[in-house]
Amino acid sequence: MRRFEGQHALVTGGANGIGFACATRLAEEGASVGIVDINAEAAGDAARRLSDKGLDVRACPADVTDPAQVSAVFDAFESDHGSIEVLVNMAGIFPSVPFADMTLESWRSITAVNLDAVFVTCHDVLPRMRRNGYGRIGNASSGVVKTGMFSSAAYISAKAGVVGLTRFLAREGGPDGITVNTIMPGPIATPQIKNIIPAGQTVEEAMAPLTSLQCVPRPGLPEDIAEGVAYACSPGAGFYTGQVLYIGGGDTFTG
Q: From the record, what ranges are coiled-coil (predicted)?
């Protein structure tokens, strides 16, 4: 499939994990992709790996919590490509901080990346998309919003805030041909998860308490989320907006 042929996409947090899977999928389907990541070395390495496969990918190092850096990177990308059709917000941090130990400073540092950055990037890209009368935005939330477990209060609150901001932006952008959706991953075997499991334990063993509750009893993969992002951000999803696309192997149902 070449749904993104001739389109230009920016993926925040695209240097690894789910963000990298999304960048890969969009590029494989024809998009020119900018990997936006605070880690310039990791962004450059990710872009090189995809470029070596013949894909049109470039590194766009930036701190997505800084409006000036975001504006500069988006300006350069748009200047080179002429337009920005797709924005995927996957940048995030998820330190586990007990509520009793959480300070206002730690709260703000976590919400800055997980919620404020979504505001910063969307606020910058929306006028660009409006000028072209077209746009697709996918914002990452998290399945912990449903459970309230396995993370910090700041992370859960920020990811819940992404849902509300996305719904507002769907109303804001709809008349101009811009759709905005939330992508909500369930339990996913990201590199970060692999790095924190106990020594000698496999990912499957570590995630078994979660996967045993799923209809599809296996750990989710970053590519599973990229599949949903590719749909939500595709030209064919023009009547799909303001929604929460939950991808968790059927561990919970909503209606």
A: none
